[in-house]
Amino acid sequence: MKNKFYTYCLTSLFATSLLVSCDDELNGLQPFTEGNPETFFNSVSSFQNGVDGIYSQFWNYYSSTGSGLQGIPDILADNVILAQTGRRSNEIYYDYRYNPNTGGAIPLYWSEAYEAVNAANLVIGQIDNLSDGPAKDNILGQALAARAIAHFDLARIYAKIPTQSADADNSLGIIYIKVEDGDTGDPFAQPARETVASNYAEIIGDLEQAAQLIGTSNGEGRLNRDAVYAMLSRVYLYNGDYQLAINAADQVTADIVDANVEGALLDLYEDTSNQGVIIEWSVNTTSESGFNNVGVLYSQTTAPNTVSEYVVDYEFFNSLDPNDLRREVIQYDATNQGNNYNAVRKFLGEPGQVNGRVDIKVLRAAEVLLNKAEAQFELNQPANALATLDILRDARYSSYTGGESGQALEDAIQWERRVELCFEGHRFFDIKRRGEAVQRSNNGDIQDGSGTPPEFLTLPAGDFRFQLPIPIDEINANPNMEQNPDY
Amino acid sequence: MRAKLAWMLTPLLVLCISFSYGQEKTISGNVTDQSGLPLPGVSIVVVGTTQGTQTDFDGNYVITASEGQVLRFSYIGQKTVERTVGASTAINVQMEEDAQALEEVVVTGYGSRSRELSTSAISTVSTEKIEAFVPSTSVDNILQGQAAGVQVTAANGRPGQTAFVTIRGVGSINASTTPLYVVDGTPVNSDFINNLNPNDIESFSILKDAATVSKYGSRGANGVVLITTKQGKSGDARITFRSSYGFGERIPDPFDLMNASQKLEIERQYAELGVSAAASMPGATADAAERARLISLDTNWEEELLRKSQIQSNSLSIAGGDEKMTYYLSLGYDKNTGIIDRIDGFERITARINTTYQAKDWLNIGTSLSLSRSTTDLPRDRNNVQNPFRAMYDYNPWEPLYSRNPDGSIVLDDQGNPVFNPTRSGFPIARALTTEPEDNRNFLIVGSLFADIKLSDKFSNRFSVGATNNRFNRTTRSLAGGVLNSIVGDANFPGTQTDNFSNTLQYNVNNLFSYSDTFGDYHNFSASFLLEYNENIYTDLFASSRGFPSPGIPYQDVAAEATDAGSEEERRILFSQGLFVDYDYDSKYILSASVRRDGSSRFGPDNKYGYFYSGSAAWNLSKEAFLEDTFVNDLKLRASYGTSGNQNIGDFNYLNLLQFATYNGNTTAIPIGVGNPNIQWESQAILDIGVEFGLFNNRVNGVVDYFKKNSKDLLLNQPLSQTIGDEDNSILANIGEVENSGIEVSLNADVIRAEDFVWRVGGNVSFLDNKVVSLVNGDDIISGDFGYNILREGEEINSYYTVRYAGVNPANGEPLYYDLDGNVTNEYSASFNTILEGKSPYANIEGGFFTSVRWGGFGLRADFVGKSGNYILNFQRQEGVSIANIDSNLRTEVFNYWKQPGDTNVLPSPLYQGTADQDSDRWLEKGDYIRLRTLTLDYNLPGKFLDKTGIDRVRLFATGQNLFTITEYNGDPEIGIGSAESSAAGTQGFIPGAFSLFSYPQTRSYTFGVEIGF
Which pLDDT value is given to residue B13? Predict the structure, then answer.
């Protein structure tokens, strides 16, 4: 019996010693691979991590293989046509059959752009953890500019653009979230939509402030002074502030790439050169080889076939000037299931690749020239406009006639814009902001114009579908959120 | 240490040493039961020695002993008999039923109790029901239809796939609803239980009501499944070898796909009508010669992509023991190739040793250890042709497996191998299966040891430590030159590979100190105090590389460059104390109570601890005088009420967190979500009232239970405005309440109990009802992966929420829908989504029944399972008839579209593709079915054939699984996972059985085997 008792004491001791420290274990457990957003931002480098986090959110929605903003605005317009032998991805968008429940681009942009805004506000709200100086200014400048760009994307996608129609300014805008104004901090907030005019005022406000703070060079994939002014030239143009657009364009120092230099233009799209690229969301194809391949929006290659989702519209391609040096980056001959197609060349991959994984080209120097030329034309400065346009054309044609005036000049500016920026996510917005209609040609998808023409040929000017619907999840979660008309 | 060594060696010694004793002689005899029928399997030991044997099938035995020694005869349910060996060499024994022993002992959690004294609703499932299944079937699938109140939905038909098990309905919305699995006292993650060898299982004990689940506190809310593995029994070693072989196949669809000529014809018809997508199809463009060529290529893609699976199983067990120790050893090997051609399927090797040893008269120690290694390849389970189960429906029948040259010959590559046809889809799945391999390996160790210390007659203590450790390895490759590598790979670095490694260690230390006493003659009292510590440590590692010299070397050492790597760790801790008290008055009136306090690392500082309690009572009416000597052998009323919790949510949801990743090679820090410091346990209260009875000499027995289970403080993702910028646009908060209630009936009867003929029937059925009681601010929550389910107060949980289809306009073939006001319109809008009251993915009636006949050596047993009242969105049918899918193969019913005014009972005219293909309740179908789950015929060779062979028992058997199904569903109604990659189990929005979308289908199988015991 004594022996038994002794054993029991030993067992109890063993059990107790195992269990006694349990409460400490329980209370001491902390996250292993996550950080604390209240304490993490305490140095320039940690703030730069935060800013790079904002860029990564842009990357998410611009590069998405199913819904990237790099390509959807072209699919929503007239530069491309659905290839019948593809996977028919984004057909709902191509045929304008989207509604608030539609998946893909509609919920993606709304959610991801606001995540970029949130990430930016996290940085901006704690910026005073850094001591004053250029390093702090540069962080704040990047974050402000990024916040403006995210809101600008939201505004042009889900709301009218000021120049689109007379009623645009006072129509439903998006919600501009600024930490300085106390817009953050309450996860249960249910904000209501502001007006387009107030959105653009705040976008411009952030960009102008950023321009005063940001550094001139932050490395690839990040915003800098040129990026802010280039974006300002676009935003002013969208807002009808033509002189300001010209002024901003003049602040941009980056040069356009000269297509007359053998291979220079292709280098740009194959990411061996960044000449002429002012804003891009970049991918490190070595360490980030699992990241999105944006080219999948247009095609995937299973040698010897190219399975194109969307190919170059027959009429658009055949309207290209034979002397246009951009033809080599616009189109390549592709076949699938015995059909020949004009496949989209721009996002095929880095040199030698067909995997579609390249940097996102958001804003290039060529666009700044086009913004400026259009603004000059709008201000009735045709000579200036023509001169600006010719800077670009000199670098894009082996030879051209030029010398247009009046309507012909306006058409030339717009044609140049369409060709220069095709497939890069501009066309829908350019048609929309100018209050025009999407007018597709009635040709088929095959290279010779045969095949199946688009089901939906015309989206009339003023149609409600120019403003994508607010996603249903937002409507459900936020009773103050008003849906766009007619959805 | 010496003692431990001896204890480990004893099993070996038992096998090797035979004792010699005085004037030994051979004694033989026959053992019968009360009614004089031979009793096989009676254990006979010579008391005080290790010598023992068992009776054969005819009740005969032979043993050597000396005069004066005592033989002990024991058998479950019979009184143990002892006979002293005298002069005679024959000892025949007639055993007597032991009323006490007949009272089944049920494992109740932290101990066991006789069923008579249990106050709890517990279902048990025993070995014989397990044996009929294909051995690669995960043990949770086996529970289907076997126990009242247990709802089992097979996840899909992939070999080795676990099932979705809920006990008494859906008690949570976001937290897991999987019960807690405890194997021999050790909690085992439900993901790993497919690595248990079903042949090792003695019984399942399923705890359903508060009287027992409250003892498991914060892990008890979903019920508890206690798995007890086999132990040796004293007596001679019993060696059992079991081997079976069989094959499986896809259960045929109740509809037809088009063949080549039909498909070409529908393309022609569509094109003629002006369906633009059909215009470029060969049915529209081909001339007569081309058409004939295509028809000659007619391909049945199911035959090209699938095959008959091979199912193979071998197992060996050795069990025995003596007075002081018992042992059970087993080995198992199982293989199921699965029905997808060109990949390997599932393979598992298991080993187990269970021992107990009476080390001192006051100390009993024991250990159990199981090792299991399984390998499986995981085909893509997604909604496109990268999934062979979608591809076989999608690929056009006029496209052959291999590409053809213009002259009709098969295209060969440089090596002379046939080139797989990329088909119109651009993706040759038959090739991708070999060029995109994914290989998973699991190595699971489940081990425990215990020490039972008897301190005095009244005090005892059990200390036990258990651990499970699962090592998971996965190798995912895209081979150079393979299908995906050429699409998304890097031309300069052909071939990619990712290796994942993860280790999940869960250990559990507990100590149970018990006291029991009897006051007066009738007052029996016992109490136990529990201390328990449970920690779960998960670590993982992965690495990716690209640029492989040869597909034959699947190791990253040879790769040109590493592209990615990572590691992480997760932990959670649970620390608990509990007090359990039981009282009974002469076994007539029984009271039990429990209280438990749990501390969990998953909650913030203010909400770390929770209390869970229960109280229960039972009345054994059959013990009362007025029921004595009546046809009522057993009658018990019982009731219980208590609480339990659910903590199956992610870690650190109470904190705001930053996530680190990269952008352009630089580190990023982004906010991943809004934490909620106030979250705490989901809590649950169950009321249970039950009656158990045994009538007519216990030939009829049954259990009826009524329960009501209220689950409150449910952790719901409260949707947030996306303008907040939260990663998943929601915040977790304790806001919901749901209620499940139901009646469970199980009944078994021995219809005929004659000497040579026994016919037994039995079954169980659960009637279940559930509703949402409260939600955040009373607002609906749209749920499900595609937003086609809804949580609304007062309605069934996850009721369907979609547009109502109003049929086809007979005048013009246009599809019609109901708008929100109930008006019929020719427009379709997602804003017409409406709740479909009473239609949800959950069944209201679920159960199973069996009938078994034993005649001489022959046995025939059929087990049926079924359910009723659930609905399934049949997206597979939608894909098979959608007008836009004219570029893929279609079901033959597509020909039945509207052609002329007045047509009714038709599909919409193809001209209305835009509105016709839309999601609506047109695709919502009843999921009712009854399925013959297993049918087993077996034959036990009569003992006379086996005399002198040294073999005790030979059993031959043939089993068919899923042989037939009665259902109106357009497809196979057993659906758990709709599409694994768009809605994995455990992800937000996942609802088992909500829709079908080309996951691995169920299979039916035929296996034949033999079992030999000696």
Answer: 35
Residue A225 has pLDDT above 90, yes or no: yes
Give 3-state DSSP helix, strand, coil % of chain B, rounded to 5: 15, 50, 35
What Å distances lie between residue B86 and B24, B32, B67, B73, B626, CA to CA? 12, 20, 5, 16, 46
Give B 786-805 residues with CB within 8 A of chain A: 787
Degrees to nearest 5, angle at CA A282 with A279 and A287: 165
Among B422, B496, B719, the residue with its CB nearest the CB of A477 is B719
Within 10 A of B371 (CB to CB), how many other CB atoms are there?
Answer: 15
pLDDT of residue A12: 62
Number of other CB atoms surrounding residue B361 within 10 Å: 8
Phi/psi at B206 (5° precision):
-110, 115
> Quick one: closest CA in A to B660, which residue?
A34
What residues of chain A lie within 8 A of the CB of B669, using their CB? 35, 40-41, 46, 49-50, 52-53
How many C-beta atoms surround the C-beta of residue A323 within 10 A?
12
Q: Are strands B871-873 and B953-961 parallel, antiparallel or unpaired?
A: unpaired
Dihedrals phi, psi of B765, to nearest 5 degrees: -145, 145
3-state DSSP assignment of residue B887: helix
CA distance B692 to B119: 11
Please give the residue of chain B at the shortest CA–CA distance from A91: B884
Partners of A343 on chain B (C-beta within 8 Å) are none
Q: Model confidence over A158-170: pLDDT tens digits?
A: 999 999 999 999 9
Q: Is the pTM of this model over 0.90?
A: no
| Residue with the two structure tokens 């993706």 | B427
What SS3 class is residue B541?
strand
The set of residues, in sequence order, having a beta carbon less than 8 Å from that of B346 and lying 6+ positions away, is B136, B158, B159, B160, B334, B335, B336, B337, B338, B374, B375, B376
DSSP B244-259: EEEEEEEPPPSS-B--
First-last CA distance in chain B: 34
Distance CA A176, CA B729 (A): 17
* Confidence label for A21 from pLDDT (cuts 50, 70 and 90): low
Q: Do B914 and A4 touch (CB under 8 A)?
A: no
Q: In the predicted model, is pLDDT for residue A449 greater than 90? A: yes
C-alpha to C-alpha distances, A340 to A301, A336, B475, nearest whole angstrom = 14, 7, 38
Rounded to the nearest 10°, the torsion over CA A116, A121, A123, A124 is 140
Over residues B817-837, the pLDDT tens digits come to 999 999 999 999 888 999 999
pLDDT in the model for residue A196: 97
pLDDT digits 0-9 by tens, A44-102: 999 999 999 999 999 999 999 999 999 999 999 999 999 988 888 999 999 999 999 89
| Cβ neighbours, 10 Å, residue B156 | 23
Contact B719/A at CB under 8 A: yes
The model's pLDDT over B674-721, given as tens digits with 9 standing for 90+, comes to: 888 888 889 999 999 999 999 988 889 999 999 999 999 988 888 899
Question: Does A56 contact B670 at a Cβ distance shorter than 8 Å?
Answer: yes
Cα(A61)–Cα(A68) distance, rounded to whole angstroms?
Answer: 5
Q: Between chains, do A101 and B424 touch, taking CB under 8 Å as contact?
A: no
Q: Complex ipTM above 0.90?
A: yes
Choose among B487, B531, B561: nearest Cβ to A301: B487
Which letter does DSSP use for residue B269 in this model?
A: H
Closest Cα partner for A296 from A354, A350, A359, A361?
Answer: A354
Out of A33, A86, A293, closest to residue B568 by CB: A33
Q: pLDDT tens across B602-623, in order?
A: 898 888 899 999 999 999 998 8
Residue in chain B lying closest to A471 (CA): B722
Q: How far apart are CA A406 and CA A409, in angstroms?
A: 5
